[in-house]
Every structure is written in C-alpha cells, then in structure tokens.
Amino acid sequence: MLEKPFRGIIPPAITPMIDNDTLDVAGLERLLNRMVDGGVSGVFILGTTGEAQNLSYTLRKEVIRQACRIVGGRISVLVGITDTSFSESLSLAGIAADEGADALVSAPPYYYTPGQPELIQYYEHLANQLPLPLFLYNMPSHVKIMIEPHTVRTLSDHPNIAGLKDSSANGVYFRQVIYLMRDKPAFSLLVGPEEMMAEAVLMGAHGGVNGGANLFPELYVEMYRAAVEKDFERIAVLQPRIMQISMSLYTVGRYASSYIKGLKTTLNLLGVCSDFMAEPFHRFERAEREIIRKGLIDLGIEV
Predict the structure, then answer these.
(1) Catalytic amino acids?
(2) How many domains are there within the chain?
C-alpha cells in the first residue's frame, strides 16, 4: 500500500537503451540500485525524463517488467501511462499492476488540447478503471495545458487519485494548489524541478521528483530532509551544489533535449549505463561530452 501522503525523493528515471528497441538492462539495474542505496522513497519510470513518448509500447512494457523486478519491493515504483490513446494508457496500467508497481502517473492527453471540464471528465473516467492509485502530472510545457488548481481540487475527491506531480516550475501555481488542498492532508503534492524542491517542501510539498537524483540520489535526499527539518544552514550549503549541477550538466547546447542528454551523458561518464537517446534525438558528440566531463570535475567528481 502506498503511503498517504507519499513523501520523499522519487527520481524520474532515465531509460537506459542500447538501441531504439533494446533496453540496457544491466544499466537499468545499476541505476535503480544506485537510487535505492541512496535512500530514495520511490522511482518514477516512463516519465518525461524516461523519454516515454519516444519509446515503443513493447519497450515501455519491458521497462515496467524489468524495473519492478529489479526494485523487488524495496521502494515504491510509479509508472507513467501518459498517452493520446485511452486504451493504451489502460494497457500500460494493467502491465504495471501485474508486475507489482505501486502507482500510476498521467499527464493530460496531448495533441488535441482539452478544456478543464474535459480534463476532469477524462481523469475521473481513467481513475475509475485503473487498478492502482493515480498521480496527476502537471506538465504544461509539453502537453499545452495546465491542470488548473481548482481542477486539482475537484479531482482530489476521487478515491483513486492520490496526488499531483507539478513540473510547471510556477511557484504561484503551486502555492494556489497548496492553499486549495489545505483540508486534504492525505493528497500528495510533489514538485518536479529540483532547483525549487527545498522551497516547495518548506511551502508544504511532500517531496520531489527530481532528475538529478538519477545522478546523486543522496544529495537530493539530504536536501529533502533538510527542508523537512527546516535546517536552513544545511539548505544554504546544498542549494548551490544543486544549482551547479543544473546549470553545468543540463544546459549544454540549445536543445529542448539538453536536460535528458546531460543526464544520460553524465551517467555514462560515471559508468552507470549507456547514453543512447531514443529517436528522434541522438547522444551528445565528443565536444559536448567534454563539457559535461569538465562540469563533473568542477563538481569535484573525477571521471
């Protein structure tokens, strides 16, 4: 059973790949064990960081099976089921439940932009048929629509909707959601951008779904705990390091994919997994890899 509210650091896992149709299983094993050993509360697979929308359904199902096998119940597994097809979302959810996952995550269906009443109808219809609890995923930069605060409040009344992952990087939005959810203490509020995770936890968030925890899980777990304990001196020490990671490893090149390429290149340099990118994107070339390597050296990490 998933803790309510679900708390802590839940890394949005990258998907290690050998080629477009082949999962890097050994790399996934090293990655997930690294997270477990780092003290995270759970792992979120098949999200934006996991390149889910660029993966075949066959590969997505393989990721679910392998991740659940590797984790083996040591931490919670959250599975992304975002899709333009309702039936495919249900299919992924069924696989997740069969393999032992703990919860599901869904951003609004994209391409045709739904209105807020349609979003409410969609999520209620989806949640009614899901075998596991559902987390709403607010990702307006990628799906063209915000799950508005009052929509979150309405959907929180559904018994199978457990929380919200907000990746809007909009502090005002998040404060509005916290205010509207003040009488719903069991509803989890998780923030995506790691740069504002401590601030969000201090505001009332229950944890972070932070990409940097693929790389250095202990750092983000320590920051989360410092925020929970309101240890401002420790936060002041850790925040600059988190910002250095963000600004040196995620910003190489002017690409929308720079963040994921930076994560994958860094993990490859650290010897964790392959840095293959799902089409239509491609891994960094030698020049960009050298920038990432220098960024790690500046962080005090020899590679």
Answers:
(1) 137, 165
(2) 1
